[in-house]
Amino acid sequence: MAQVTATAERTVPAPVDAVVAAVADYATTRPKILTEQYTDYAVLSGGLGDGTSATWKLHATKKRTRHVKAEVTQPTPDTVVEKDLNSSMVTTWKVAPAGEGASLVSITTTWNGAGGIGGFFEKTFAPKGLARIYDGVLSNLASTVG
Question: Is the sign of the CA dihedral 22, 65, 126, 2 positive or negative?
Fold first, then answer.
């Protein structure tokens, strides 16, 4: 199994504290910024940052759907980590200053990919598809907090 990584980033016209608060708000902000590739979203416990548990279905393609049950941690004030209890997938949101009143937000997801030829295609195409989905989420985030 090979490690697969997908990354997207965007500058958001809002200060770091506001952006981190929005990213960590699974109860109110998160449902507003998710794209149509996310369905059945629900907060199971918590709702704000560390200790939150949430679930959703991610439709990576018309035929590939992943049921995510995420446990959220905030290892640093500018980082939110979602660990999927149903798989090896880990998504890390990082927020950094990007000039006066702006923030650079990055989303990086890693998981253990398949082996063989299927793994080759997964490692080649899945990161690009997931990055496109994340671009939409980051655009929605920028519109929501910017």
Answer: positive
